[in-house]
Design a protein that fits this description.
16 helices; 2 domains; 394 residues; 85% helix
Length: 394
């Protein structure tokens, strides 16, 4: 039964990844159709991210009240409704309104399922969970490409919305499977959630949040600006750069699949260190003053492979570091810090890049990854001391 439930959770995470790359892949046509500047995509994504941050912070309270299974099913349907609504949008302000429920649904799924897998499954399953998110992000651009070739961007959203609805129906029909596992975190409880302030008072949590913020700032910058870096710094054509940039996602997805086979042996802390070292190798290659497209491509693939185990390992280590009792609240805040980093840092990099040039990307990535590893090592040391103090006999 636990294996079937895990398969359902994987399916839910595919549903989380499906819409994430849909807007970006369709925006070159969408902004023309809606007669708005190309830069307006940032407004939509900011609203989505803001709503996601809100639901991430509320996720612990929702899980305590309704249980993980119900929060997941409701959130999947909420995103499905939003995606279908996107397919009927004919004005830009329609997108802005619809972005709110989409963001709310995505944040709740993310926090609820990350906490549940961290509590009840091994680190390999956490890596594979995020690998399935990557599958969703890879599939969506192909769906949108098909829609743009044979119909309109509205149909791309409609197809993904229907797929999301089917996933929601499957999860709803299999609710008894969730209940039969006997895990308490699936069901609503009478225990009071500690909330944001209470979680921040726990020793080590502020360092964890800073580390997670820094990692997501680096990852999202590499995702969003790699194509521009290829064109502006390495002299690669726009078409070729777009193809190269997509390989970062593939490298990360493959990396998370492979990480699952060794995560159980090495443990979360060593996986974070290993991933940082691999990413550092790719960044060093980017520093090399050679305008060789293949070398730049290899560097970004290596950075993606290095980034692959870091996010899931940080999440999976949370119950170990802080205990299962408060992991839901802390992971919810982690998701919020992740979205803050991925929302605000890439635009800041873009502003700086326009002023001083995009060649400083390796420095930017190295700086944030350095902050991440220092903060995470500090977190592990603080929580280790706290556990040792609790276990010490009086």
């Amino acid at each position: 039964m636990a294996s079937l439930l895990l398969a359902l959770i994987y399916l839910a995470f595919i549903s989380l990844g499906l819409p994430d790359s849909l807007l970006g892949s369709g925006w070159p046509v969408i902004h023309v159709d809606l007669d708005v500047p190309v830069s307006y995509m940032g407004i939509v994504t900011m609203i989505i991210s803001g709503s996601t941050i809100v639901s991430s912070l509320l996720a612990d309270r929702l899980i305590h009240k309704f249980g993980t299974s119900r929060v997941t099913v409701i959130s999947v349907f909420l995103t499905a409704v939003a995606l279908v609504a996107f397919s009927f949008a004919s004005k830009f302000w329609h997108l802005l309104l619809i972005a709110v429920p989409y963001g709310l649904g995505a944040g709740a799924i993310d926090a609820a399922l990350n906490n549940y897998v961290a509590l009840h499954y091994s680190s390999r399953h956490m890596s594979w969970l995020h690998c399935f998110w990557g599958v969703g992000t890879i599939v969506s651009p192909f769906v949108m490409s098909y829609a743009l070739t044979n119909a309109t961007w509205h149909d791309g959203y409609l197809i993904v919305g229907i797929a999301q609805t089917v996933i929601g129906v499957i999860l709803l029909a299999t609710l008894p499977v969730w209940k039969k596992t006997g895990h308490e975190s699936l069901e609503a409880t009478n225990e009071k959630a500690i909330g944001l302030v209470g979680a921040l008072k726990i020793k080590g949590v502020p360092f964890l949040l800073l580390g997670f913020f820094a990692y997501c700032a680096a990852e999202s910058t590499a995702m969003n600006w790699s194509s521009t870096y290829f064109v502006e710094v390495k002299g690669i054509s726009e078409a070729q750069a777009a193809q190269f940039a997509s390989l970062f996602y593939i490298g990360m997805t493959v990396g998370r699949f492979l990480s699952g086979f060794i995560a159980g042996k090495l443990g979360d802390r060593k996986m974070i260190v290993l991933g940082t070292c691999i990413a550092a190798v790719g960044i060093v290659v980017l520093f090399l003053p050679f305008e060789i497209p293949a070398l730049a491509l290899a560097a970004f693939i290596v950075v993606g492979l290095g980034c692959a185990p870091i996010y899931p390992s940080i999440i999976h280590s949370t119950p170990f570091n802080f205990g299962s009792k408060h992991s839901g609240a802390i992971i919810g805040i982690q998701m919020a810090s992740a979205y803050v980093g991925s929302t605000f840092m890439p635009p800041l990099f873009g502003l700086l890049g326009r002023r001083i040039g995009f060649a400083f990307m390796p420095i930017w990535l190295a700086a944030f990854l350095a902050v991440m590893i220092v903060m995470m090592e500090t977190t592990f040391r603080i929580t280790a001391k706290a556990r040792a103090a609790e276990e010490k006999p009086l």
